[in-house]
Structures are given as C-alpha cells and as structure tokens.
C-alpha cells in the first residue's frame, strides 16, 4: 500500500502556528496531539534527548483522518534559514481557496505576510488561475490559488 500521509512543519511556537492554520485554512484537529521522546526518537532523529510536541491537523477538503499537516516543535531548535521560493527542497504549501485576495488578507490579519504579486494566468481548455505567494507567521511560504472556467471566443 502507498498513500500520502502528512507534511511536517517544525515551528518555533507550535501552538501559535497550529492556531494560524486552523483559523486561516480551516485545518481541523483530529485528536492526534504528540508529546514524544525516548530512545526510539533519538535513533530516528539522530539527536540526543530529542523531545517534540505538536499536533496533526486534517487538511481542508478531506473528510477522514489523512492527509495531515503535522506541526511540531522541538525543545532544542537549530538556527533558521529563511525560506526562499528558489531554495532546493520543499518550497511551499499550496491551498486552493474561493477568493485569493480575501484569503491573503486573512493570512496577513492572522500574522502572516504577503510575498510576491497576485497574478492571473491562462491555462489550456479555457481555465484561468489566480495565484499569490504569502508567508505564514513563521516565514514558511504558502501558495494561494483559485481556478475558474473562462469564456472562449
């Protein structure tokens, strides 16, 4: 069996970031909070005395218990490297929303920030997309997108 399970974000303040994703993106608690430590976690992470806390949040648009956004925090955090859209590795998390501009405003009200310009792009088969990048309160890059059918002449 193969299935996508979760994406993990390591947060400076897991509770604050969890609240942000619940409020802005309608992620839901599924009663999977974590307070993990032990020899097995040290072996898995390669860290001594690792301790992580956080929660799995059901991503919007799904009705079961997966996939989730896993937001954890370690007791001991390394220094941060600012997220950049062209840095190798995972670049952003994308959410399809009804109204990109309204959701961007909500991101900003909830402590996030704008990143780049709002753009509209034509796609094949008469589709049009509105996109913008933003940052969550801890600087992780988000993509907001919405799609619509346009009239073809």
From TrEMBL:
UniProt-listed SUPFAM superfamilies: Glyoxalase/Bleomycin resistance protein/Dihydroxybiphenyl dioxygenase (SSF54593)
Coiled-coil boundaries: none
Domain VOC residues, every copy: 3-147
A Pfam family it matches: Glyoxalase
Protein name, UniProt field: Glyoxalase
Organism: Lacrimispora celerecrescens
